[in-house]
Write a structure and sequence with these properties.
Distance between the termini: 30 Å
Largest sheet: none
Helix content: over 70%
Number of helices: 6
Structural class: mainly alpha
Length: about 110
Protein backbone atom coordinates (compact mmCIF):
# COMPACT_ATOMS: atom_id res chain seq x y z
CA UNK A 1 0.00 0.00 0.00
CA UNK A 2 1.49 3.34 -1.01
CA UNK A 3 -0.14 5.09 1.96
CA UNK A 4 2.19 3.10 4.23
CA UNK A 5 5.22 4.26 2.28
CA UNK A 6 4.06 7.87 2.08
CA UNK A 7 1.67 8.95 4.86
CA UNK A 8 0.68 12.03 2.86
CA UNK A 9 -1.20 9.68 0.48
CA UNK A 10 -3.48 8.32 3.23
CA UNK A 11 -6.33 10.84 2.54
CA UNK A 12 -6.28 9.89 -1.13
CA UNK A 13 -6.37 6.17 -0.31
CA UNK A 14 -9.26 6.69 2.12
CA UNK A 15 -11.25 8.73 -0.42
CA UNK A 16 -10.69 6.22 -3.22
CA UNK A 17 -11.58 3.23 -1.00
CA UNK A 18 -14.79 4.86 0.23
CA UNK A 19 -15.79 5.95 -3.29
CA UNK A 20 -15.24 2.45 -4.64
CA UNK A 21 -17.37 0.94 -1.86
CA UNK A 22 -20.17 3.47 -2.47
CA UNK A 23 -20.08 2.74 -6.19
CA UNK A 24 -20.34 -1.00 -5.44
CA UNK A 25 -23.23 -0.30 -3.05
CA UNK A 26 -25.14 1.62 -5.71
CA UNK A 27 -24.50 -1.09 -8.31
CA UNK A 28 -25.73 -3.74 -5.86
CA UNK A 29 -28.84 -1.69 -5.10
CA UNK A 30 -29.52 -1.36 -8.82
CA UNK A 31 -29.12 -5.11 -9.35
CA UNK A 32 -31.17 -6.12 -6.29
CA UNK A 33 -33.78 -3.43 -6.81
CA UNK A 34 -33.86 -2.29 -3.18
CA UNK A 35 -31.52 0.14 -1.49
CA UNK A 36 -32.88 -0.91 1.92
CA UNK A 37 -31.90 -4.57 1.34
CA UNK A 38 -28.36 -3.55 0.40
CA UNK A 39 -28.15 -1.21 3.43
CA UNK A 40 -29.17 -4.11 5.68
CA UNK A 41 -26.56 -6.37 4.09
CA UNK A 42 -23.83 -3.73 4.49
CA UNK A 43 -24.81 -3.24 8.14
CA UNK A 44 -24.75 -6.97 8.87
CA UNK A 45 -21.38 -7.35 7.16
CA UNK A 46 -20.06 -4.45 9.22
CA UNK A 47 -21.25 -6.06 12.45
CA UNK A 48 -19.71 -9.40 11.56
CA UNK A 49 -16.35 -7.94 10.58
CA UNK A 50 -16.11 -5.97 13.82
CA UNK A 51 -14.85 -2.45 14.39
CA UNK A 52 -11.87 -1.20 12.47
CA UNK A 53 -9.45 0.44 14.89
CA UNK A 54 -8.68 4.02 14.06
CA UNK A 55 -5.28 5.30 15.16
CA UNK A 56 -5.01 7.95 17.86
CA UNK A 57 -7.56 10.13 19.56
CA UNK A 58 -9.17 10.99 16.21
CA UNK A 59 -10.52 7.43 16.14
CA UNK A 60 -12.89 8.20 19.00
CA UNK A 61 -14.65 10.91 17.01
CA UNK A 62 -14.58 9.12 13.64
CA UNK A 63 -17.91 7.97 12.27
CA UNK A 64 -16.45 5.28 10.03
CA UNK A 65 -17.28 4.20 6.51
CA UNK A 66 -20.01 1.62 7.26
CA UNK A 67 -22.48 4.02 8.95
CA UNK A 68 -21.82 6.57 6.21
CA UNK A 69 -22.51 3.96 3.53
CA UNK A 70 -25.74 2.86 5.23
CA UNK A 71 -26.91 6.47 5.61
CA UNK A 72 -26.20 7.10 1.93
CA UNK A 73 -28.16 4.00 0.91
CA UNK A 74 -31.13 4.96 3.08
CA UNK A 75 -31.12 8.50 1.71
CA UNK A 76 -32.30 9.65 -1.69
CA UNK A 77 -30.88 8.10 -4.84
CA UNK A 78 -27.88 10.14 -6.00
CA UNK A 79 -28.24 11.78 -9.38
CA UNK A 80 -26.27 10.30 -12.24
CA UNK A 81 -23.14 12.39 -12.66
CA UNK A 82 -20.58 12.60 -15.35
CA UNK A 83 -16.91 13.23 -14.81
CA UNK A 84 -15.57 15.38 -13.09
CA UNK A 85 -17.23 15.08 -9.67
CA UNK A 86 -18.89 18.29 -8.55
CA UNK A 87 -18.11 18.12 -4.82
CA UNK A 88 -14.36 18.57 -5.19
CA UNK A 89 -13.34 15.88 -2.69
CA UNK A 90 -11.33 14.08 -5.35
CA UNK A 91 -9.59 17.32 -6.23
CA UNK A 92 -8.74 17.95 -2.58
CA UNK A 93 -7.38 14.43 -2.15
CA UNK A 94 -5.29 14.76 -5.32
CA UNK A 95 -3.94 18.11 -4.12
CA UNK A 96 -2.98 16.64 -0.75
CA UNK A 97 -1.30 13.69 -2.46
CA UNK A 98 0.62 15.98 -4.81
CA UNK A 99 1.76 18.17 -1.92
CA UNK A 100 2.87 15.11 0.04
CA UNK A 101 4.78 13.74 -2.92
CA UNK A 102 6.46 17.10 -3.48
CA UNK A 103 7.42 17.33 0.21
CA UNK A 104 8.82 13.81 0.10
CA UNK A 105 10.81 14.54 -3.04
CA UNK A 106 12.25 17.74 -1.57
CA UNK A 107 13.21 15.92 1.60
CA UNK A 108 14.96 13.20 -0.39
CA UNK A 109 16.73 15.82 -2.50
CA UNK A 110 18.03 17.58 0.61
CA UNK A 111 19.36 14.29 1.98
CA UNK A 112 21.19 13.55 -1.27
CA UNK A 113 22.90 16.95 -1.32
CA UNK A 114 24.55 16.43 2.09
Amino acid sequence: MTASANPFLRPLWTAVAFSAERWADEEAAREVGSRRVVATAVGKAGLISGPSPAPGIAGFAAVGPVPRRIAALLGPVPPARLWPPADGSLYAAALIAAAGTAASALSSLRRCRR
